[in-house]
Amino acid sequence: MASSTEWDLESLASSRSSSPSSDEDEVDVRVSPDWAKYRCHIERRGYRLDTVRDVKDYYRNHCSNIDKQGLHVYLSGYHRALARSDEDGLCKDIGLREGLFRATRCLDGMKVMVKAVHRDSRELDIVRYLSAPAQQRDSMNHCIPILDLIDAPQDDLCFIVMEEWSADMLPEVPVSISCLMESLRHCIEHIAFMHRHRIVHFDISSRNFLTDYNGRYACIDYELSRRIDEVPCPRILYSRGSEIPPEAERGRPSNPFMIDVWALGVLIFRACELAEFHIPELTRLAKWMLHENPDKRPPAASVLKEFQRIQATMRKTLHRRHISS
């Protein structure tokens, strides 16, 4: 992990809030850098961007895990690599969204993901904050582990280097009920943590929560996230993200925290559906979070408290069943 001095993680004098300017809009768009231009710069920090050889190896090793939906992307990426003759030439995986490049940490061979962002973007500001030592010590902070921030000031870019985890929140289906509950606990804890620090994610979905297959779950993608001014009734016009609540669809100013709560409720429903578990108490909680009236949705802290109660009750029930059997 790079030092806090090197990253300047605690230097947040120019914090971003819920009142964006046109200049902010310009720096918060996705960037698509000329990766070859920064190859040596990134390597000097100890990370090697994927070559044609790496991409071929990646797709060969992951072939058995490809589902029908991902087959086209798999074949496109693999065949694109096969068509290249320069094994050491950079090869961006076509399956990755723009601004992302898979890489390897030279020290130990760990696979990492490198994301290019504007130096003045809200995303970088929030990633710096969530990665600061004070926030890292909070057990409710489940931001994907950030390994390095590589500055390229000449082009107003910064490269966020993070661990590469599974692209799925739930590793395999079917999953155990304990695995489902742990994954949801991590998701809810992280959003409650962010809201406590007056940050909204704005793009909560299963694709933005990953697992390392070792019982850890982490949140990614803070492109739409922003800090919210400390006012009694914050409101914002919102029309982006994966899950749009009804008040936002109608074009009404929305409570930003309740937008996250709505999306988190959708995530709970979909995770239970995917895992094929019907948990009545969890269903009731999710329905509360999906109330048509945003003022009647529970804050994230209350969601977490109720979820913890449900999880504790389930553990006691399972323990009693285990003893009686």
Structural overview:
The chain has 325 residues and is α+β, with helices and mostly antiparallel strands. 43% of the residues lie in helices and 13% in strands. It has helices spanning 4-7, 22-27, 35-44, 52-62, 68-82, 122-131, 133-136, 177-196, 246-249, 256-275, 280-289, 300-324, and strands at 47-49, 100-105, 111-118, 146-152, 157-163, 199-200, 209-211, 217-219, 226-227. A 5-stranded antiparallel sheet has the order 1-2-3-5-4, with helices on both faces. A two-stranded antiparallel ribbon has the order 6-9. It is globular.
Radius of gyration (Å) = 21 Å
The description of the largest β-sheet is: 5 strands, antiparallel
The termini sit apart by 47 Å
Order of helices and strands: HHHEHHEEHHEEHEEEEHHHH
* Order of adjacent strands in the largest pleated sheet: 1-2-3-5-4
Amount of helix:
40-55%
